[in-house]
Structure formats: C-alpha cells, structure tokens
Amino acid sequence: MEEEVAQARLAPVEAMRQVWHMDTRWEFGAANGICGVVWDCARPDLRHLPSNLPDDLLVVSLHRTPVDCVEVRLDGAPCHNGRLAAGSWMVVPSSGAPEALTEGVFSLLHLYVSRGLLRDVAAEYDIDLSPARMDECRTGRFDQHTLAATCQRIDSGAAIESDALARLSRDRMAQALVADMVALFAEDAGAPSGPETLTGPRARRVEALVAARLGEAITLDDMAGAAGLSRSHFLRAYKARFGETPMARLRHLRLERAMTLLRTTDASIGEIALATGFADQSHLSRHFKRLYGRPPGAIRSEIRATRR
C-alpha cells in the first residue's frame, strides 16, 4: 500500500519523464501531494521540452544553474524569452500546455503543486486567491520572494536518506512551499486596483506593444499610452509592479532577444543590433557586455566552436 501511495505521488514526475527524455538526479513526494524532481540536461544542443501533465497543476521551477537561452510558451504564445539566472524561479500553469525551447546544459528543480491544494489552504485561512494570476507565467529572482529560498531548502534536503525524520523534514518544507505560493497569488489578489495602478490587462497591453515592436523605437510615452496612463503615473506604477523602470526592462528584453538571435541565426552582429532596436553594433556590444560579461562577438565564437 505504501508503495502504491508513493507511486501515485510521483505520477507527475513519470508523466514528464515520458516527454522530456532527460537524466534526473533525484525525486521525492511529500505527504501533502507535492512532488519534485531535478532535471539535468547534459546536451548543449537545441531541445523542445513539452508538457505531459494534467490541467490542475502549477509547475514551480528553480534554476539551479543558469539557462542561457530559453523560450517558454503558454497556449502557444511566448511568455518568457532569454536567459534565466541561477537561483531564479518560474511558476507556470499546466493548463496552459507549457513548453520550452532551450539551448545549452542546465540543471533545474521542478515541483508539481495542485491548484486544489492551494485553494483549500487559502480557504482554511480565509485568504482570497486570484485565479487569473494562477493562469499566468510568473518569474522572479532569488531576492524577490521567499519562494526561491524555500525551493533551495527543498533542493538541498530532498535527496537525504528516507528515514522518518528525513520524511518529516521534506513534508515540512513542502508545507512551507504551499504558504509561499498562497502568499504569491494572494499578494496580487489584494493589491490596490485604482485608475493609476498597472493592472493585469494594462500590463499585458504594454507587453504586447513591446513584443510587436522590439526592433523599433519605443518611447516611454508609447508604453504609457498602451497602458492608458499618463507618463508620470505609468512610470511610478511600472516601477511599483516590476521593480525597475520600463526603459530598463525594454533594454533587458532586447538584449535577451539579441542573445537568442546570436545562438539561433547566422545574422551578423550589426544586423542583430538593428533587429533588436539598438542604434548600431557598438551600441549593442556596450550594453551586451554589461549584462552578460562578454561582448556578442565572443559569444558567437563560442557557439561556432561548439558546432564544429
């Protein structure tokens, strides 16, 4: 009976193993139904990673190493494109048929969490969750939410021996993960929603504008207009929601797109600069080196060397 229960808890892991075809380091199942696995990708080539999960789960990823080139899609539409730093986290709904395109070696922790579990715990404590936010791709850095710290504790403790005290420790960490995720979605549900805040629909209109015109000139007024806010209100609301200015975020997205083009096309660096909204090659190179530590020419040389 215990073996059957353990197998049932690990069903999401087995479902993903059927489509990812990747080495795993360890896996675990907690008493509250949360299960997890560490995926180790040792192949540097381009990979398509689909989902094979039921629709009632949230997939939490902790990136144990950097993922240099990744595109994540929900319902066929991109929700993230570019580099994922070590220690960063992402939450995606399985109902959105998430899939990823990756290039390079990486290691990540996956945790599979039932939406019903979050709803039950939230109801017990009279906490309102936002179903709409649970249907979105959420990302963050290690220092932006306790979620990453909890994932790292699970990562460091889940592979220990399976005695009673070890199981107790894992179950306790899985409960802490539930509390972190309830807080993550309750924060948005309880956020103010006045005429000068950057609500979900307003933020999505800005994201759509940026995605459509990433290679063109985009001004602060353009983004404020898409959000339906004045320039000053938009700037304040954007920084409150995302923790950085809109132009800084725009530059970051352009650099991530430039990295993708370096890895996936034979376009020259000058062509890539113009395609991603930079004035010229030197303009791109200056900002690229500031973010990635190396100029685009060095990245291109490394890519060509690995393909020989």
TrEMBL record:
**One annotated GO molecular function:** sequence-specific DNA binding
Matching entries from SMART domains are given as: HTH_ARAC
Q: Which domain of life is it from?
A: Bacteria
What InterPro entries does the database record attribute to this sequence? Answer: AraC_XylS_family_regulators, Homeodomain-like_sf, HTH_AraC, HTH_AraC-typ_CS
Which terms are listed as keywords in the entry? DNA-binding, Transcription, Transcription regulation
Residue span, HTH araC/xylS-type domain: 204-302
PANTHER family hit by this protein: HTH-TYPE TRANSCRIPTIONAL ACTIVATOR RHAS-RELATED
Task: Name it.
Answer: Helix-turn-helix domain-containing protein
Q: Which organism is it from?
A: Maritimibacter harenae
